[in-house]
Write a structure and sequence with these properties.
- The protein has 556 residues and is mostly helical.
- It is 71% helix and 1% strand.
- A two-stranded antiparallel ribbon has the order 1-2.
- Helix 2 packs across helix 19.
- It is globular.
């Protein structure tokens, strides 16, 4: 079975009274408390190590903030090797840094507008709220697997997932970079043609200036003038005006709803879920003698363990109903989604192709594609375009069923691997075609609440000292400000949104490497202590003895 680090009451007193060095070399001792380094004051830390860590964390945090992810996979190794000499103590401090960066991100992003439409928030609250509920629910089962599987098995999953995400994200970034380059070249050629035309026009004007030009002005009555202006209106313009006149209230209502900068329903649901996760974790934590899998409380413990299925699942259903209602309202109002064409427009344009496909003409692949788009048009009211710059989220029944599963898998991976959801959800948002700045902003918004929940839980479990926590929250805050404002200027100067995607893929790849190094060292240390099983899953952390040893060994 896996070795478990317990600290006796006498050992805790020895560490708390500073009678022994807080050195990770004692990790095999039963008296070793891995969280003790966090209880130190700022003045007790080596000045050189503190300055070096601050600079490194500030740099990495700025890059992570620019990519819209937390950066915990980069922070933990730095804290572990440079400042604290304790891998476990590095995790709560990493959460503090992520929270600080998330606060900085939110201060910048909360008032920003959509980068393309210049209307409505840059944060996609609909997708964020929906995915947050599913992710938190997935984390519950991911943590369950994390407690059962060995570190070796977890590391294999980590390498596979993060390598895959990094590769796909970088590939997507390179594709978008090339598309931007082609678009710039085309724009430059078009500008050159316009410049040549202007030059030719000026030459023509100069040549004609030597001759006489006779201007004839015809004066007409007011009635004739009104008639002429009316004649300029085409039948199509009148039809459009008539159509707009039929549904102005619906269009205006849908637009107003989409442009709300701080939607109350989203904040109400997300704050409720955050408070619940804090309560949920505290109730079943071995740090508090509330619910333990011991004696008469065993059944109650396991019932409480799976209450997220009801609470978070219920929150997910509530958000789904809101999104479905919003979609139906917009569809009825004739809303235009970016990356999609309206069903009636597509059917009119492709009428002959549809009839040919229904008649069995053409090759099988082309016929199936046409019929599939016809079905999509009839069922959803829209048809997805190919190779659009980005896509709005259209909450059809198919998407309302698909995305909860995706969010659950993302949360499962995050809970299993001990990483923030950003490294899973960030690439996912890019993969589904979300506008890059909106994707990283939505991801950063979600991290704010998971980071807040994590810090509160560590604080309540007495695994954080206030000085270090406050200091690195401030460091994270500064890095968040630098990252968001700096990247905004870079994008503005270069006109390349692909930088966000490339930065995200690079950060995930770097985090994968650093976490593998950290995990390998941790496994090696446990192996040196002896009696460490690399492959056999264990359920000892769900036993009553584990809770009793943890509680009595860590209480002051």
């Amino acid at each position: 079975s896996r070795s478990t680090e317990f600290a006796s009451t006498d050992g805790w007193r020895r560490l708390a009274s500073n009678d022994d060095d807080l050195d990770d070399g004692d990790h095999c001792s039963s008296n070793y408390d891995p969280y003790a380094p966090l209880k130190q004051g700022i003045d007790e830390l080596p000045v050189g190590a503190l300055i070096a860590t601050t600079i490194i964390i500030m740099t990495l945090g700025s890059l992570a903030a620019g990519a819209g992810i937390g950066g915990g996979g980069l922070f933990v190794p730095m804290y572990s090797f440079i400042l604290l000499k304790s891998g476990k103590a590095a995790v709560p401090l990493s959460k503090c840094t992520i929270l600080g960066a998330a606060i900085g991100n939110f201060q910048v992003l909360s008032t920003e507008k959509h980068p393309v439409t210049k209307e409505g928030p840059v944060i996609d609250y609909e997708t964020s709220s929906f995915m947050q509920a599913g992710e938190l629910l997935g984390v519950v089962f991911g943590v369950l697997l994390n407690m059962v599987l060995t570190e070796t098995e977890i590391m294999i999953f980590l390498v596979v997932l993060l390598t895959y995400n990094s590769y796909n994200t970088l590939k997507k970034g390179v594709t978008k970079w090339n598309a931007e380059t082609k678009a710039k070249e085309a724009a430059e050629k078009e500008a050159a043609k316009e410049s040549d035309k202007d030059a030719e026009t000026k030459e023509g004007d100069k040549s004609a200036s030597g001759g006489s030009v006779e201007l004839t002005v015809s004066t007409r009555g007011d009635d004739e003038t009104d008639l002429t202006m009316n004649e300029l209106e085409s039948d199509d313009d009148k039809a459009d005006a008539s159509e707009k006149g039929q549904k102005p209230v619906e269009i205006n209502a849908a637009t107003e709803e989409s442009n709300v900068q701080f939607p109350r329903w989203a904040y109400a649901i997300i704050i409720s879920m955050t408070l619940y996760t804090v309560l949920y974790a505290s109730m079943k934590s071995p740090s508090f003698k509330l619910l333990w899998p011991c004696g008469d409380l065993t059944a109650v413990y396991w019932i409480w363990y799976f209450t997220p299925v009801l609470f978070l699942g219920g929150a997910m259903l509530a958000v789904a109903r809101i999104l479905k209602k919003s979609y139906e309202t917009k569809r009825a109002a004739g809303w235009e989604y970016t990356g999609y064409t309206k069903a009636e427009e597509w059917l009119l344009e492709n009428d002959e192709k549809v009839k040919a496909a229904e008649g069995g003409e053409g090759d099988d692949e082309e016929r199936e594609a046409i019929l599939a788009k016809k079905k999509e048009a009839e069922e959803t009211g829209y048809v997805k375009l190919e190779d659009a710059p980005y896509y709005d989220m259209v909450w059809t029944n198919a998407n309302l069923w698909k995305f909860p599963k995706t969010a659950l898998l993302a949360g499962l991976a995050a809970g299993l691997l001990g990483i923030g959801g950003g490294m899973v959800l960030g690439p996912l948002f890019i993969e589904i075609g979300m506008q890059p700045t909106v994707a990283k902003s939505s991801c950063a918004f979600m991290i704010l609440w998971t980071g807040l929940s994590g810090v509160i839980q560590y604080w309540m479990a007495d695994k954080l000292g206030w000085q270090l926590a406050l200091y690195f929250i401030m460091v994270g805050y500064c890095s968040g400000q630098i990252g968001q404002r700096g990247l905004k200027q870079v994008i503005k100067a270069t006109g390349r949104e692909s930088i966000v995607i490339l930065l995200l893929g690079g950060i995930i790849g770097l985090a994968c490497i650093s976490m593998v190094v950290t995990g390998s060292i941790s496994i090696d240390q446990k192996a040196q202590c002896g009696d460490y099983d690399f492959w056999t899953p264990s359920v000892e952390e769900f036993g009553c003895k584990y809770f009793e040893d943890y509680y009595y060994g860590h209480r002051r």
